[in-house]
Amino acid sequence: MSRMSRLSSLWRNLVRRDHVERDLDDEMDAVFALLVDEKIAGGMSPANARRAATLEIGRTAVLKDQVRQARAGAFLERLRQDVRYAVRSLRRTPGFTVTAVLTLGLGMGANITIFTLLDAVIFKPLSVPAAHELVRLYERSPKGVPDSEGGAGQYLSFSFPRFRRLRQAIAPQSSLAASTRSSKFIARFPGSVQALPIRAQLVSGGYFATLGVPAARGRLLTDEDLRVDGADPVAVISDGFWKRSLGSNVGILGQTIAVNGVKAVIVGITRPGFVGLWTDSEPDLWLPLTLQAGLRYQRNVSSYTNADRNQPWTAQDAISWLIVFGRVAPADLPRAAARLQSANHEGVVALADTFADGESRREMAAHTLSVEPLVRGFSALRSRFSQALFALAAMVAIVLLVTCANVANLLLTRAAGRARDLRIRVSLGATTARLLQQCLTESVILAGLGGAAGLLAGAWASGALARAVLDASGDLPPVFSLDIRVVVFSAGISLATALLFGFAPALRVIRTGRTAGFTTTERNSPGSSIMKGMRPLVACQLALSVVVVFAAFLLGRTLINFVRIDPGFAVDHLVSASFDPEFSGYQRDQMPALEQHLLAAAKAVPGVASAAVSWCGLVTNCGTFSGFRIEGATERVSYHENWVSPGYFATTGVSLVSGREFDGGDNQSRAHVAIITESIARRHFPGLNPLGKRLGFGEPDTEIVGVVRDVQSETLHQPPVPLVYFPIEQPPAFRIFPRNLDVRFAGAVDGTVSAIRETVRRAEPNLSLDTLEPMSARIARDVGRERIVAYLASAFAILALLLAALGLYGVLSYAVAGRTREIGVRIALGARPATIAMMVVRDALKLVAVGTLAGLLAAVATGRLLRALLFDVTVSDPMTYGLVAGVLAMVTLLAAYLPARRAARIDPTRALRSE
Amino acid sequence: MSTRQASLLQGTLDLLILKALAADELHGLGVSRRVNQITRGTFVVQPGSLFPALHRLEEAGWLTASWSLSENNRRAKYYKLTRAGRRQLDEETTQWNRIALAIARALEA
């Protein structure tokens, strides 16, 4: 009865503040009424009685305030007592405290790490005011080639004329802005010869205004800055660039920076933390998009056949290159979306009218506009890492549960030593609620310390992981920084963890203190009750760690399977360089000379067997494609394409199936030729000899002279891509030039890479290389996600196993200690030490068998969640079960070794005397 | 009531309230009347000190409160000693006796 009322009082105070208030009001009213009654009974008139009562009680508001303060004071006093008591008792058992805090720190650190990454990559809104008002626009096509950003059938980019049309449709209530992705440029400051590689975005005048961000210094871009006539171009620099590369020099405002030769005046600096729409990279510079032609910006673009990419893009409706986003008040959204859709439809129809081909016309006119929230911005990491992060989050959550079970076990073990202390407190009248509060205070302190340790570990680990994933060595994008969200999460899981590991042991401990009366020989009763709590906990730990170990095995085997893939080209002894000559300032007529110089430079390096240049490098996510007319086919077929120099196939190790490689004779003055992959040959010329057949962009005018093997030229994650190869000396009407150099060599990798870098620098000092690395490094990056996920999963699995083994060790040791007397008797009666040891091991195996079985069932049930991350491994592979069971058996033997040995060595005479 | 009342020593009020509730549960005003009665009118506890003290003692776990009907059929909040409260009363009584004895001796000397 009294226990219940204490519990409810605690509940009232902590949770139901206004209930307490109402109760206080009621009480004051009741006291007043009683006082009036009393005075009337004493002979006063009702009016006088009321007056006298009012006088005696004083102002009730003041009284209530005094009561409130008294209550709060008492509550704080009690909390202070509990904290003091908890700190004292934690200090008294430093071994326990350190173990618990470290365990919790690891468990929570893992969770905080993954949460920080999950939040940065998936959840965190853009750091702009009212990010929920932002929307992004994209087009859907009933059938279409996927855009690199949007996924199948979505086109994320728009032409500049279309953007203007759309902006007009919803101005002035809502605003629309356009931006390109970050792209590499070469910048120079006047008076300095040093070329600075920078990342810049071309944006519309309303870009900053739409995002709602002010300048930290100077001003940001406006529509005025987009005018191409007369006025000098302007640029805005990012806070990061200003601090990193310009030494926070305030004098930079008003100075000129030459970007790809275009001079622009720096007019402003953005605020710290502002990175634009892409959360995982920080641009250095923003430029008006009207500078596209002047900058020779040619990236991230798709165009229709009647476009001329060499003319300014701002004037052409057939070139899509701008990401369009807007700010629309939520109430206006339906109306704004409808207006945008109808404006877009008009635009689509107008564009379709310029197409000659009826099929293309119909397809274009069927495009529809979608308006979607952009609250979290774009992230290149999001689509690649979402599933992996969720899977890892599930794993660390399980690890935390295992951790909780461990700490709960520690608490139970320790409680056995505190039973006497508890019984005294109970007999002194401490209520269950009071004791519970005290125990939980201790748990919260432990979890708080663990959480703080975890926060430190998490901040470090998430930074290190983000750096590994982004391939960055310096500053990370601000989205990865430790912020209030992470701190709140850490505090939240600390509290939840405290309740999780603290509640059940506290109740059990209190019950132990209550039920057992005062006894001096107290070894048996609390011990056995506590054992009852420990065994299921350990079984749960084992089961949970089996789930994590199982997942780690699947992910590890996935990584191994990826590493073993034969991509179709020879990875070893191949070095590749990627570059963009246009960005380094090369004109079109310089390209053939560039090719010759590069090839000559590479071949001059000792040990180099062959070298070749190409438009698309292997595993560079290059992927250009066109529609082809192929002899015998009635419809246009879309295929990936590449332009390569003679010797390309020999250099990369792509094997020639039939026909010939390109040779020096395949140039502009000769008939155009092509090489196709086997899959194209099989599809279009089944049972026929493809050599001598023809294909082409407009008409089938190019002769097929060779067939090569299909290779995984883009990524190991996709099946081989059917490809059409052309000689780079026979370029098409659109821009094609060397952007990749492949070199096959014999000898040491490091020496070859630096030798190639040196000779290329000497031969073409103006060419800046984006990358120069062994092909194996490119492949390693391609399976970077699998590698990092497999490593993390293994780390978590080891952590979970370690904790479970500790738990098992604890329960076995405790059991042996509790049975010392019994074991002593057995030994005295002639049991052999081996039999005693086996008894302990059997005990362990029983727990492990239950745990493993339950864990495997759970693992199979949840394994499906991993499917998207797996390659060539199935959840139901018996080999994985066997491996997991084997690992668990090993852990069992390790954990059981010491307790078993101790049991076998029990001295019967001492064991019997000790009781 | 018109006579000058002794001011309460720090901590004495709690002891008196616990003592007042030792025999029976009482509502707030009842506690005040009982203190007045057992101290033979020396102490009159004003609501301004009584109610904060009652709530403080309740928060400390020495009292519990519940609503019931008073002798003249009015709803009132009744206070009752808990086990811990009774224990506290014993302790404070012992303490008080020791102090009182010591002071009495000191004054006699």
Spans where pLDDT lies below 50 across 5 or more residues of chain B: 1-5
Q: Figure out the total of helices of chain B.
A: 4
Give the averaged pLDDT of chain A, no decimals.
86
Number of strands of chain B: 3
User: Oligomeric form of this entry?
Assistant: heterodimer
Strand content of chain B: 5-15%
Structural class of chain A: alpha+beta
Helix % of chain A is 40-55%
Overall form of chain B? globular
| Rg calculated over all Cα atoms of chain B | 15 Å
Mean pLDDT of chain B: 84
Quantity of strands of chain A, as a count: 26
Give the overall shape of chain A.
globular
List the strand order in the largest sheet of chain B.
Answer: 1-3-2
Distance between the termini of chain A: 39 Å
Order of helices and strands of chain B: HEHHEEH
Report the β-strand fraction of chain A as a percent range: 5-15%
Q: What separation lies between the terminal Cα atoms of chain B?
A: 34 Å
* Count of helix runs of chain A: 25
Compact overview of the structure:
The complex is a heterodimer of chains A (915) and B (109). Chain A has 915 residues and is of the alpha+beta class. In chain A, helix 12 runs antiparallel to helix 15.
What would your notes on this structure say?
The complex is a heterodimer of chains A (915) and B (109). By secondary structure, chain A is an alpha+beta fold. Helix content of chain A is 53%, strand content 15%. In chain A, the strands form five sheets. In chain A, strands 1, 2, 3, 4, 14 and 15 form a six-stranded antiparallel sheet that branches. Chain A has a six-stranded mixed beta barrel with strand order 5-6-11-8-10-9. In chain A, strands 18-19-24-21-23-22 form a six-stranded mixed beta barrel. The longest helix of chain A is centred in the middle third of the chain and has 48 residues, at 380-427. Chain A starts with a helix and ends with a helix. The relative contact order of chain A is 0.09. Mean pLDDT of chain A is 86; it is low at 146-151 and 517-526. Chain B has 109 residues and is an alpha+beta fold. Chain B has four helices and three strands. Chain B has a three-stranded antiparallel sheet with strand order 1-3-2. The longest helix of chain B is centred in the last third of the chain and has 26 residues, at 83-108. Chain B is globular, with a radius of gyration of 15 Å. The model of chain B is unreliable at 1-5 (pLDDT under 50).
